[in-house]
Structure formats: structure tokens, C-alpha cells
UniProtKB/TrEMBL annotation:
Gene3D superfamilies found in the cross-reference section: L27 domain, Metal-dependent hydrolases
Any GO BP: proteolysis
Single GO term (MF): metallodipeptidase activity
Organism: Massilia aurea
Annotated signal sequence range: 1-21
Claim: Membrane is one of the keywords in the record: no
Protein name: Peptidase M19
Length: 404
């Protein structure tokens, strides 16, 4: 994304408008909130590690969403009863060259280590899980749960070395891996790029087989239709879409059509409902510049971090990234359930990666979802499937497929 600099006058106006706004979020009924808290709740895609390296920022705190751009921290996970999820090692797509692979691998390894060191500082409150059984044990012990995932396999590199690097990340605790992001890479075509491989590359086919061997979950979010089809045909384990929606709810290639949703469900997989791409993406020059700064927020001084948060939240007031209402989100979630079945839908909001919408803009507001679904008659058993049961079942299926 090309970096541009918003004018100071524009940001001053936006900040003035921000000062007039009250924090969003309708109160949640205590009884329904208690129902939510009894569930094991997991999110399949948390981009929060982008904030882990920030000077002066504490993952263990409870940051005020009125002044802080981060959407997830331990304080608000407790407040919204998000018991855990998959913390993503994201790497932006770069050139398919030895130099590009080397830089990407160094970035991903550093991010993996940063996740480990951050979680270790809060080991009394959140534990690391590598299996579904470990997640349930941590929850039973009153601890939050942290899995590790990779978004974009680009850092794995090329050739045989790519499979060795994948196995290395598996040893580091990664259990969910997305094959591609917004641009094609050496493994596959992206849903938002022109086809280069018409699905999987030869190396991508090796990647699928190695993912199965290692007992890791294949994440098909961001993959092209042809890539999804070929992974469905090749994989011995179910596929997961960690943060996607149906094209019926919003017609965008980043979402997936209902026919493929049914095929993923028939294969035992699941689609995790997201807050993104349920409306047009508002990515003007101001937002693009802020996204560029956000991707590097860990390199900024605390005062510059605070300025970035102010500018982002001020822009949200006049030009939100998504024009999606909470009711639209609920309708999209219900559509997924109607198409895939309640045994094949999970949750993946894409918090800290561009996700969130009015009334659901940080994890403290997650009980609203349970409140709304309970009001519509969803049973506790089905809520348990939606919030974690289906996700853990897909993980267990991958574990059984592994030969290590």
C-alpha cells in the first residue's frame, strides 16, 4: 500500500468531530451476559500481534476504545468473555524472490517469537494451546487460551526449504495456516488477484499434503475459488475459513459462494463469520495512509501511537471503513448457519486486522451476539458449537490426520 500523508488540517477537523462522539455499544442484559460467559468462546483470527511490540502498550491492560485503535487486550477479553483464539502471524505479500522470501521469513519468525514473549509475560492469565484438548483444559482452569496461526504462507519460501520451514513453525506451536493473502504467492492464487496458477501451484499441492502430514488446519480465507476447489479435492483433512462471509450477503470475491460453503461443510469443515466485506470497503487516501502506519505501529513512539489512534478513530466518525450495521452482521451470520448448518459455522471477526463495525467494534461487545441469537431462540448447545465447538472439532480432525 502506497504511503501518503493526510493533511494536518483534515486530521484536526476529524479529531474535533471525534471529541463530540460518545463511545458506542449498547448495554447487554445481565442474564444473557451470564449465558455468554458460560460458553467457551474462541475467535479464529486475531491480528492483535501487530500491537504486541508497541512501546508502552500493555496487552494485559484494559484500553479505552474511545482513544485506542487496538480492539483486543486481556482486559477487554475478560469483559467481553472472549476466552481466546488464534493469534495471527501476518506477513504482507512481497516479491517472489530469494530476497523477498528471506525478509518475509525473518519478519514471520520475529512475530512468532514476539507472540511467545508477550504471552509469557501474562502466563498467569492466558495459556498457550496447541491442541483442542489443551484449550479445554486451560478453560477449565480459568485461563484464557492462545493458539498461533499464520496468515499468508509467503514467508515459507520456495522449494523443499518451504516444507522444512512449515514444519519449523509447527514446532513453534502454529496450528492454523492460511495459504495466501491479497496477492498471489508461490503456493496459490488469491481471491483478489488475477490468476497466475489457476488455483494451486505444484508447490501449493506439496503444501497441502505437508499440512495434512503435520496435523495443521488449512485456512482457505483469501484463497481463490479454484484454489479452494483444489484444496477440497486434495486435502485429507477439513478446510477452515478463519474470517470470511457468504457472497450472498455481500458479493465480493473475498467472500465465498454458497455452493462452496456447502462443499466445505460436507467435508467436515467450517466457515468463521467475519465483520469484513459485508459492505463496500472505504479505502480513501487518508485511510490508506493510516493503514500503512498501523502496520508499523510497533516502531512508533508512544506519542505517535496515540496520534495514530486519534486519527483512525476520528476518520471512523466521518468515513467508517465498513458501512455495515450490527443487524446486517447478524443476518449474514444466520445465512451462513442456514447454508452450512449449525455444525459448520464459527467466529472470526478479524479484530485488529480491519474488522469491527458499529456496535461491534471491539471484543468487549461480543456478548451482544449471544444476546441477539438467544433472543431469536438459539439453544445453548448450538451457541456452544458456534463459539468454539465447531472450530475445535476441525482442529481435532487435523490432529488425527497428522502422522507426527
Amino acid at each position: 500500500m502506497k504511503k501518503t500523508t493526510p493533511s494536518s488540517l483534515t486530521l484536526a477537523v476529524l479529531f474535533a468531530l471525534a471529541g463530540c462522539a460518545a463511545p458506542g455499544g449498547a448495554p447487554v442484559d445481565d442474564k444473557v451476559d451470564n449465558n455468554h460467559r458460560r460458553l467457551l468462546t474462541l475467535d479464529a483470527h486475531l491480528d492483535t500481534p501487530v500491537h504486541f511490540g508497541r512501546a508502552g502498550w500493555d496487552f494485559g491492560g484494559r484500553h479505552d476504545p474511545a482513544v485506542e485503535v487496538a480492539q483486543v487486550d486481556l482486559g477487554r477479553m475478560r469483559e467481553g468473555s472472549l476466552d481466546g483464539g488464534f493469534f495471527a502471524i501476518f506477513t504482507d505479500q512481497g516479491p517472489l524472490t530469494p530476497e523477498g522470501y528471506a525478509a518475509a521469513r525473518a519478519h514471520a519468525l520475529a512475530r512468532s517469537q514476539l507472540i511467545d514473549t508477550t504471552l509469557a509475560r501474562h502466563a498467569d492469565r492466558i495459556g498457550v494451546a496447541t491442541t483442542a484438548a489443551e484449550a479445554r483444559r486451560l478453560d477449565a482452569a480459568g485461563k484464557l487460551v492462545a493458539f498461533k496461526s499464520i496468515e499468508n504462507s509467503y514467508p515459507l519460501g520456495d522449494g523443499a526449504a518451504a516444507m522444512a520451514t512449515l514444519a519449523d513453525f509447527q514446532r513453534q506451536g502454529v496450528r492454523l495456516v492460511g495459504i495466501v493473502h491479497s496477492k498471489n504467492n508461490q503456493f496459490a492464487d488469491s481471491s483478489t488477484d488475477k490468476p497466475a496458477w489457476n488455483g494451486l501451484s505444484p508447490l501449493g499441492r506439496d503444501w497441502v499434503r505437508e499440512m495434512n502430514r503435520l496435523g495443521m488446519v488449512i485456512d482457505a480465507s483469501h484463497a481463490s475459488d479454484a484454489t479452494v476447489d483444489q484444496m477440497l479435492a486434495l486435502s485429507a483433512s477439513p478446510l477452515l475459513l478463519s474470517h470470511s462471509n457468504s457472497r450472498t450477503s455481500f458479493d465480493h470475491p473475498r467472500n465465498i459462494d454458497d455452493a462452496r460453503i456447502r462443499k466445505i461443510a460436507a467435508g467436515g469443515g467450517a466457515i468463521c463469520a467475519s465483520t469484513i466485506y459485508l459492505s463496500e470497503l472505504k479505502m480513501g487516501p487518508l485511510r490508506a495512509a493510516l493503514f500503512d502506519r498501523l502496520e508499523h505501529i510497533g516502531t512508533l513512539a508512544p506519542l505517535d501511537q496515540a496520534a495514530l489512534s486519534r486519527d483512525w478513530l476520528a476518520l471512523d466518525l466521518v468515513e467508517p471503513l465498513w458501512q455495515t450495521s450490527f443487524e446486517q452482521y447478524i443476518a449474514s451470520l444466520k445465512h451462513l448457519i442456514a447454508v452450512a448448518g449449525i455444525d459448520h459455522v464459527c467466529m472470526g471477526a478479524d479484530f485488529d486486522g480491519g474488522g469491527g463495525l458499529a456496535g461491534l467494534d471491539n471484543v468487549a461487545q461480543l456478548p451482544r451476539i449471544t444476546e441477539r441469537l438467544k433472543a431469536d431462540g438459539m439453544s445453548d448447545a448450538d451457541l456452544a458449537k458456534l463459539w468454539s465447538g465447531n472450530l475445535l472439532r476441525v482442529l481435532e480432525a487435523a490432529e488425527k490426520g497428522g502422522s507426527l
